[in-house]
Amino acid sequence: MLIVNCDDLGMDDAINTAVIDSIEQGIAGSCSLMAPCPAARHAMRLLRRRPEIPFGIHLTLVCEMTAKPWGPLAARERVRSLLDDEGHLLAPTAAGRSALLARARLDEVELEFRAQIDTVLDAGLAPTHLDFHCLADGGRDDILDLTVALAAEYGLAVRVWLQPGREKARGQGLPVVDHPFLDSFSLDTRNKELTYSRLLRELPAGLSEWAVHPSLGTEETHAMDSGWLVRRTDYEFLISAAARELLRQEGVTVIDYRMLQQAWIATNRTL
């Protein structure tokens, strides 16, 4: 079984269009919405028109788009530990992530996460899970624990993929993936189709997850997004006939977080 989840829905219109295509015409099974981003309203309209598409909330504490920056959804004066001196979210560089994780107050992280979750719920949408933008398992143990607690409160699952977090979740009876997680930004853009084809042929038994990042890769996005080629090559593979044929040949079943969500809800009721 394989979760193919399109991250970064809401970042821009080219990503929004490609994500929907990758699910409706391609092999992706779900997506994750970034509520603070410039195209989030457009993304939420697309999801409202397609209630059959399962999606999560891509919790974000960083911003890499300097041309079209996004800020926190909570009031800035209430989440100052998450911002730089100019009141902006930090960039997801190594230095930016380190600075954020060193200074972020957990109560302010909770305020921002709740603001993002409530924005999606207030739009009349029903997410399946929570995951993180550019911070593996939230980047800190206490942030992951907070997110797991929020998931229990809101009736959601959480993407947990680092080994310590997976072991802790399993110890609580919460289902997580069985194998190392794939982030498509870790793949070489050269011969991307061959790489994905090999990974599908070698996919182990059990549950795996790929976080993919499709975009149309328009000229406008080239100027704003240094990762546009990663996104464009992801999109080309996800919607290809070769990808669909490989799933059939290899007996790979693409699922989404709805199955995990129900198990998380049932387990949390007993805790």
Architecture blueprint of SSEs:
Layout: E1 2-9, H1 13-24, E2 30-33, H2 40-48, E3 55-59, H3 94-103, H4 106-122, E4 129-132, H5 141-154, E5 157-158, H6 163-171, E6 182-183, H7 192-201, E7 208-212, H8 219-224, H9 228-238, H10 241-250, E8 254-255, H11 257-270
Parallel strand pairs: 1-2, 1-7, 1-8, 2-3, 3-4, 4-5, 6-7
Helix pairs in contact: 4-5, 7-10
Task: Describe the protein's architecture and organization.
- By secondary structure, the protein is α/β, with parallel strands linked by helices.
- The chain has one domain (2-270): TIM Barrel, CATH 3.20.20.370.
- It has eleven helices and eight strands.
- Strands 1, 2, 3, 4, 5, 6, 7 and 8 form an eight-stranded parallel β-sheet that branches.
- Helix 4 (106-122) packs parallel to helix 5.
- The mean pLDDT is 96.
- Gyration radius from CA atoms, angstroms: 18 Å
Largest sheet: 8 strands, parallel
Q: Indicate the structural class.
A: alpha/beta
The ordered H/E elements are EHEHEHHEHEHEHEHHHEH
**What is the CATH C level class, in words?**
Alpha Beta
As residue ranges, the low-confidence spans are: none
What features would you highlight for this structure?
alpha/beta, 271 residues, 11 helices, 8 strands, 8-stranded parallel β-sheet, TIM Barrel, globular
